[in-house]
Specification:
Blueprint (H helix, E strand, L loop, with lengths): L6 E7 L6 H6 L7 E6 L6 H7 L3 E4 L5 H12 L6 E4 L11 H11 L3 E5 L12 H18 L10 E4 H7 L8 H11 L4 E5 L15 H22 L1
Parallel strand pairs: 1-2, 1-4, 2-3, 5-7
Antiparallel strand pairs: 4-6, 5-6
Helix pairs in contact: 5-8, 7-8
Length: about 230
């Protein structure tokens, strides 16, 4: 327990056998629970995660949001104070987790986004399409809801009660933007901190392919405009 807060980490993972042990090895000791959600991997991701000390649960339905929802379901009975989301590709720096949770503990924020945009990025870590997509999505959120974000980064922390109240639904690539839109809709106290970012181990399933980029872009924009239409 860190400063009297119980902390859990959810790591969605699909075919991350080359990186998952590094991710788990760098998570600070202040974390009480770690769950790796194996999103129907065809490699040894689950085995390596288990050998590295994580609890592994399986989500056969593919989709980033599906994996995150499964992780939340696992934590339902754990009575957590803070939940951190972290990718399994080792592009983020898990040891920076304490930087993410500190504004929640010390300043009462509801959600903290780890921003790669304002952080220290390794050259080539974020592809041009990812940089543009982040800029466009966060610009639209600011225009529609008046909340200023610089990134849709997956490395984020949120209080467990707040996360439950958002009633997250997206099952695919729209998960992160849905959370930020709902944070704005609920007038949550949000902030960003700069986080470091490096080239991931292996090839991105999203921005690493043309098809993945197009699909993710469509889902993210659809999520934004669908919620904007409901708003107005």
């Amino acid at each position: 327990m860190y400063k009297n807060k119980t902390i859990g980490v959810i790591i969605p993972a699909y075919n991350e056998e080359s990186s998952i042990a590094y991710v788990l090895g760098d998570i600070p000791d202040c974390v009480d629970y770690i769950v790796v959600v194996d999103n129907n991997s065809t490699d040894s991701t689950a085995e390596k995660a288990r050998l590295s000390g994580a609890k592994v649960v399986f989500q056969p339905l593919k989709g980033y949001g599906n994996a995150c929802l499964k992780g939340m379901e696992y934590f339902d009975s754990k009575h957590l104070d803070i939940i951190v989301f972290l990718d399994g590709d080792y592009s983020d720096y898990p040891n920076e987790l304490t930087l993410l949770i500190e504004p929640i503990i010390s300043d009462g924020f509801d959600m903290v986004i780890g921003s790669r945009t304002i952080g220290n990025k390794q050259k080539g870590a974020m592809l041009p399409q990812a940089i543009f997509g982040n800029w466009l999505a966060t610009t639209l959120i600011r225009l529609f809801w008046g909340y200023s974000f610089t990134d849709l980064g997956p490395f984020r922390a949120i209080t467990a009660d707040t996360l439950t109240s958002l009633k997250m639904e997206d099952k695919t690539y729209g998960w992160t933007v849905e959370m930020q839109i709902k944070a704005a809709q609920h007038s949550l106290r949000c902030t960003e901190i700069p986080v470091s970012y490096r080239k991931r181990i292996g090839k991105s399933k999203v921005t690493g392919t043309i098809n993945g980029t197009i699909k993710a872009s469509y889902i993210i924009l659809w999520t934004i405009f669908r919620n904007a239409v409901i708003k107005y």
